[in-house]
Amino acid sequence: MNYMWDTLILAKRKNIDIENIYFRLAEIYSPYLELAMKYINFSIDENTTELDVNPFYRFGYIFNRMFMPDDDESQELREELLNCMLHFIYNIDIYTGMNTHEFMRMFIRSDIENGYFGEEMKESWSLFSLTEQEVVTTQMIDMYKTGSGAEVLRKAILGVFNNGYVYFNKILKDEILIFAGIREKDIYRRKMEFLIEMFMPLDFKYRIYWSKHFGIIGSEELMKEDAIVLY
After folding, report:
1. CB neighbours of residue 51 within 10 Å
2. Which of 2-11, 112-121, 201-210 has the highest average model confidence (pLDDT)?
3. Containing H/E element for 91?
4. Distance between CA atoms of 133 and 231, rounded to whole angstroms?
């Protein structure tokens, strides 16, 4: 990772509070890198409290005069200013590369978090990781564009439940069969309820299968005794 924004986006994906990270002027750094990492395989995690940076890589016109080589006065104050200013700059840095799709996702996320979809949906939303929230908001945009909920429901479920499957039964009735591929727990149940409430078409019925798949004649893998449930 070269740029500061790259590391901070990764931190967001890991649900790390960026406001608690302290940006520090590195004592030794490469003129070709913005981050001064001690190890080449460095990856930010929940234990990271400080990041050594080279602010002159892109923002030398801002910080050059703050850290002149022969100026030792008010060093502590200048380091605090550097931290505050970099926190401000990184917000601008991240949003500079946003396109219309990203702005739409940001507004949808804000509406959910402000309770416009209901308090229960707001509480369940906090259970999703940042990556899962990106999946959901992307599918909401697609639903607004296409007006179809069934297909975006399938994509949303598979994006959140990576081992799941979604089947459409339209032979006898409009029904969706959902295999979560994971043992049922309260957090997973609430996530599934959120997705169904958000995307399930009104004229469809549905069934949820958690850790055990329903049997399918002709498939040996899905006809094992004690490993399947009845449809």
Report:
1. 22
2. 112-121
3. helix 75-96
4. 31
Give burial (CB, 10 Å; 0-12/13-18/19+) of 220.
exposed
Instruction: Give me the phi and psi of 225, to 5 degrees please.
Output: -65, 135
Q: What is the pTM of this model?
A: 0.64
Neighbouring residues of 190: CB distance < 8 A, sequence distance ≥ 6 = 124, 127
Q: Is residue 175 within 8 Å of 204, Cβ to Cβ?
A: yes
- Per residue in 4-54, pLDDT (tens digit) is 877 887 887 788 888 888 999 888 888 878 888 776 667 788 888 888 899
Q: What is the mean pLDDT of residues 93-114?
A: 82
**C-alpha distances out from residue 16 to 25, 47, 124, 148, 197, Å:** 21, 9, 19, 34, 28
Contact 154, 166 (CB under 8 A): yes
Q: Where are the alpha helices (DSSP H) in 161-201?
A: 186-199
